[in-house]
């Protein structure tokens, strides 16, 4: 079994003028819920310069940890609030290449 984390990437297309509100909601969710979940390792929020989107990059210990997060009632309570501000596309995978200077 690999020690490599599972990477979850969520791409949110933000409704006009709602990027700041979405980022505030995602930060609150990360600070109060996500960081308490078993298997969570890290989360980064990336905001589009044009205000049209936010990417959530997160790492988890296992695919099962991602599925447990998705089914957690606290996460499910946040989803309708997020969907009021943006549409969501998601993918889970693993790193296959990386380079750093």
Q: Can you describe what's shown?
A:
This is Antibiotic biosynthesis monooxygenase family protein. InterPro entries: ABM_dom, Dimeric_a/b-barrel. GO terms for molecular function: monooxygenase activity. Pfam families: ABM. This protein is an alpha+beta fold. 36% of the residues lie in helices and 33% in strands. The chain is globular and about 40 Å long.
What is the element layout, followed by pairings?
Layout: E1 6-14, H1 19-32, E2 40-47, E3 53-60, H2 63-71, H3 73-85, E4 86-93
Antiparallel strand pairs: 1-3, 1-4, 2-3
Helix pairs in contact: 1-3
Q: How far is the N terminus from the C terminus?
A: 29 Å
Q: How many DSSP-defined strands? A: 4
Q: How many separate structural domains? A: 1
**Poorly predicted regions:** none
Mind describing the biggest β-sheet?
4 strands, antiparallel
CATH class value = Alpha Beta
Q: Overall mean pLDDT score? A: 96
Task: Say what the CATH topology is.
Answer: Alpha-Beta Plaits
Radius of gyration, in Å, reads 14 Å
Beta-strand portion reads: 25-35%
GO molecular function: monooxygenase activity
Keywords: Monooxygenase, Oxidoreductase
Domain ABM: 6-97
Protein name: Antibiotic biosynthesis monooxygenase family protein
């Amino acid at each position: 079994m690999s020690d490599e984390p599972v990477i979850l990437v969520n791409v949110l297309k933000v409704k006009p003028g709602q990027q700041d509100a979405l980022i505030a909601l995602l930060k609150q969710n990360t600070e109060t819920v996500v960081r308490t979940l078993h298997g969570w390792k890290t989360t980064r929020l990336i905001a589009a310069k044009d205000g049209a989107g936010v990417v959530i990059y997160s790492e988890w210990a296992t695919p099962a940890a991602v599925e447990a997060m998705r089914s957690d009632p606290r996460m499910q309570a946040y989803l309708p609030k997020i969907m009021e501000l943006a549409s969501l596309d998601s993918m889970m995978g693993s790193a296959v290449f990386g380079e750093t200077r």
